[in-house]
Write a structure and sequence with these properties.
It is built from 16 helices and 13 strands. It has about 375 residues and is α/β, with parallel strands linked by helices. It has two domains: about 180 residues, Rossmann fold (3-Layer(aba) Sandwich), CATH 3.40.50; about 190 residues, Rossmann fold (3-Layer(aba) Sandwich). The strands form two sheets. Strands 3-2-1-4-5-6-7 form a seven-stranded parallel beta sheet, with helices on both faces. A six-stranded parallel beta sheet has the order 10-9-8-11-12-13, with helices on both faces.
Amino acid sequence: MPVAFVGSHARLGGSELALERLLSTLGRDWVDRVIVLEDGPAVRRLGALGVRVEVLPSGTRAGLLTAAWRLRGRLAGDGVRLVHANGVKAALVAGLGLAGTRVPVLWVKHDLSWDGPLGRLIAAGCAEVVGVSEAVLATLRRGRPRGLPRPRLAVVPNGIREPQADRADTRASLDRALGLDGSASLVALVGRLHPAKGQAELVEAAPEVLRLRPGVRILLVGGEDPSQPAYAARVRERIRALGLEDSVLELGHRDDAAALIAAVDVLTVPSGPDERGMGREGFGLAGVEALAAGTPVVGYADGALPEVLGDAAVLVPPGDRAALARAVAGLLGDPDRSAALAEAGRRRFAERYRLETTTAAMAARYRAAVSPAARRGPGG
């Protein structure tokens, strides 16, 4: 079935990586083309898969309407059976552009951004909304705009490949790169420098972690977010002000982030809402990579993290930096509990988050979206 994939962004965030993984396993017969609404590093990575990739810049709000019209011209009547809209902007553009055609839109919802009336309105233009967690579908289940149809809703968690990196070798290489002798415990946060990812939370908790567990090194893995330069500067200033330059190390973007997660002693996911109230984790890809690798996770019990990580992680109240510090330090000092969490994480990964399971589930959703029943109109 020829499916056109429309991507909201071309950064290297969780939604872009999830799409890349899906395309790498679906099979070429499913993929008509990929259209990305901005240029960026993800465009090159998707092209390396051997699929046809086009950039259709959307720009400002007015640009969304232009992009929708251009998308309609490219896809309507072109043999495409379905559009997979990866993210909210892609769903908005595809829904506007393909309104009145026989090409259904399936919105894969990765986060809780723009929930509420706008999200429900966008969903009403889709045949189906697939959430990567139940949490991202919660507002769509609570209501719909009066007089508009309700799309089918389904949950298909993101999937990842089983880690192949050798933990001991990766750890030894990491220690050498950092100039460490192998005796220091390593704690990591993986994510772009953005308020929602919680680097500021971990930096503020770091002095207490170091008081309880001297010698710990805290690694910030992830590049700057172009939309948040002030936040990156603020995080670095706090590191200097707290005298943490030797203890909190910024590694920048790393293509081997999954291997680094496997090499550290604890992964932290202190995610939360940004200044606009958005950004709570809709899935938590780094946390799932830690489950797969057997790395214990400490995070805030917010967004989808309780649902996704379950009892395979230590989750503390959102915003409680003291509890975050105690949980991290406690795991570093309790090998038995760390081992139990690692085993629980591997089981949870095997049961829920294998890439092959996700790929098969998405193929089933594509078939359902173009079925005769779906073409008669979305249902509850």
